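User: Quick sanity check before I run a bigger batch. Here is a single chain. Can you write out its predicted 3D structure?
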Amino acid sequence: MREGLIPTILGSVVTATGATLSRNNMKKKNVLPMIEAGVIGFGLAHIVLGAIDLVEHRR
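Assistant: Done. Predicted structure follows.
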């Protein structure tokens, strides 16, 4: 398995989860938007770092 693939997949799942939370709670507004943004940011950071590993270890 290529190095960086797991963080990229994990980041995609976490970002999708954060986006789903954000979409579902737009009407309710009982969950803090900062938590949703933090989850999305955490996922995006994993995607970026995993992509960097994938590009660096392409050989």
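The chain has one domain: 5-56.

User: Great, the batch can go ahead then.
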